[in-house]
Amino acid sequence: MTKNSYDVVVVGAGFAGLYMLHNLRNRGFSVKVFEAGGDIGGTWYWNRYPGARCDVESLEYSYQFSDELQQEWVWSERYATQGEILRYAHHVADRFDLRRDIQFDTHIAEMDFDEASNSWKTTTSDGETVVSRFCVMATGCLSSTNIPSIEGRNTFSGGTYHTGNWPHTEPDFTGKKVGIIGTGSSGVQSIPLIAEQAEHLYVFQRTPSYAIPAYNGPYDPEYERERKANYKFYREEAKNSRSGFLLAINEDMAMDVSDAERQAVYEKRWKRGGLTFLGAFNDLLTNKEANDTAADFVRGKIHDVVDDPKIAEKLSPQTVVGCKRMCVDTNYYQTYNRENVTLLDVSEQPIDAITETGIRRGGIEIELDELVFATGFDAMTGALAKINIQGRNKTTLKEKWAEGAKTYLGVAISGFPNLFIITGPGSPSVLANMMPAIEHHVEWISDCINHCRDTNCNRVEASNDAEEAWVAQTNELASHTLFPTCNSWYLGANIPGKPRIFMPYLGFQRYLAACEEIVNEGYKGFSLS
Ligand code: NA7
C-alpha cells in the first residue's frame, strides 16, 4: 500500500467522523480523515456563538459505544454548553488516540469514482490526492452556513458574524449597537446573551419560533448516578423510541381528555422543560386540532412573560408546534422586556438593504456597529454539494440531486458505489437524537465495509429501485404528519431554489428495524460485486 492509498477516506472530524475512524481502525482498516476546521468537533467547533448549547440532555447526547467512556465522563449541566461538548470531543480524541489519522485545515474539492479499479480518488483544495476503496462523508447536516442574499450584504463596514461560523476570538459587543437576523435555535440561544452585552440589540424576525424553557442547571449527582448505573436500560429505551431520546411520549390523544386535563398535562411538561413538551400527547404532530391546543398553550405562556402585548403577539408563532424544530431557551422571551432590545418584524416590513452603516427597512436606516446572521444552514445537502463528487458515468452528485436529494437508508446513493454518508437525507438523524443516530450509521457502514472485505467484494452500491422506494417511504411517512406544513429546512424550504423534498426519515425505532432487516436479507437493495 502506498502512502496515499487507504481502505477508507473519511471527510469530517465531528462526532460522526471521530467514531467512524475509531470503529474502522479497530477492525484493522487503514483510514485517513480530512477535516476543514483547525481541530476536531464539527458543529461544536464552528458554532461558538454566545449561549450555544445542545437541546438534548447531556446524558443522552453522548457516545454509548464505550461503557468506560460513558461512565467516566461527568457532565456538569443538564444541557451542556458548546465549550463543554467540545471538551468532551477532545477527551474522546485523546482517549482513543484519534488525531494521528486526521489531517486538519483541509478542504476536499473533488471526489471521483474510478470504475475500473472500484476506488475513489479524493482531491484536496491544495491539490493533494489520495485513493481509497471506500469513502465516508461525515460532513454534518447543519454545517454549510446560509447567508441570505440581501441587497448590499457585503457593504456593511462593521463586524459581521454567522452563528455557525463564529470567530474563535470572542467578539465583545459591549457598548455596541448590534443587529441580529434570524430567530431559530441559534438566534433564540444567542439573543439573551448578546442583549446583556450590547448597548442596544435589534432583532430582525421573519418567523417567530416556539421556545420552551430549558430549566437548565447542574445535574443532581443522585440523578446522574442512577442514570449511569442503568445506562444500558435507558439507552435501549431510547433506541426503542420514535426520536432516539427519552421524550416520555404520553399515549393519550390530546382531544380525548378534558380541557382541564389537557392544560394540566401541558403545564407539567412546561415545568419539566425542554423538548419533552412535544411528548405531551401522542398525536401532537399528526392531528392539527391537537396541535392547535399545544400552540395556544405556548402562545399563552409568551403573553404571560412578555410585558408588551403587541410584542408578545409578534413573538407568537401561528405555525404548527414542532413543525420546525422547537427551540429550548433560557430567558428568551424575558429578553424582550429589556429596554435595550427592539423586535422588528421583517415579515410585516421587509429589510430593504444592508448598508455600510446598518440596515435599511421601510426607508429608515437602523445604525449598527455589528451584524449577526443567525440565518441557519443549507441543511443536509449543503456540505456535500460543495464538493464536486463524481460517481459512475461521471455523473455528479449535484446533477443527481438536481430534483431533490435521494438516498437509500440515508447512507448510500445509487450511482455512487462505495460511498457512504452519515446522517444524510433519508436518515432520521435531524428529527432524532443525533448521537445514537451517528453511532448507528457508523456501525452499520462499518459492518457493511467489513462484510465486503469478508466476501471479497469490491463494489457495494444501492440500486435505483431501492432508493426510489426509500424516498417514497420517507415522504409517505411524513405525509401522515404535520411536518410538511411549514417552510422548514427539513423540506429544503429555507434556501431559495432548493428542490423541496422531505428529507428526514420519521421514526428512529422503525429506521433501526429497517436497516437490520435489510442486512438480514443479504443487504437487500444493494448490489455487492
Ligand atoms: P434555523 O432554525 O434555520 O433558523 C434560521 C433563522 O433565520 C429563521 O428564523 C429564519 O426565518 C431566519 N432567516 C433566514 N433567512 C432570512 C432572511 N432572508 N430574512 C430574515 N430572516 C431570515 O437555523 P438555526 O441556526 O437557528 O438552527 C439550526 C438548527 O440547529 C436547529 O434546527 C436545531 O436543530 C439546531 P424563517 O423561519 O425562514 O422565516
Describe this structure in words.
It is a single chain. With 529 residues, this protein is α/β, with parallel strands linked by helices. The protein has two domains: 291 residues, 3-Layer(bba) Sandwich (FAD/NAD(P)-binding domain), CATH 3.50.50.60; 221 residues, no CATH class. It has 16 helices and 20 strands. The strands form five sheets. Strands 1, 2, 3, 4, 5, 6, 17 and 18 form an eight-stranded mixed β-sheet that branches. A five-stranded parallel β-sheet has the order 7-16-8-9-12, with helices on one face. A three-stranded antiparallel β-sheet has the order 13-14-15, with no helix packed on it. Strand 14 and strand 15 form a beta hairpin. Helix 1 runs parallel beside helix 14 and helix 9 packs antiparallel against helix 10. It binds ligand NA7. The site of ligand NA7 has 20 residues, from helix 5. Belongs to the FAD-binding monooxygenase family. Its cofactor is FAD. Keywords: FAD, Flavoprotein, Monooxygenase, NADP, Oxidoreductase. InterPro entries: FAD-binding_Monooxygenases, FAD/NAD-bd_sf, Flavin_mOase-like. This is NAD(P)/FAD-dependent oxidoreductase.
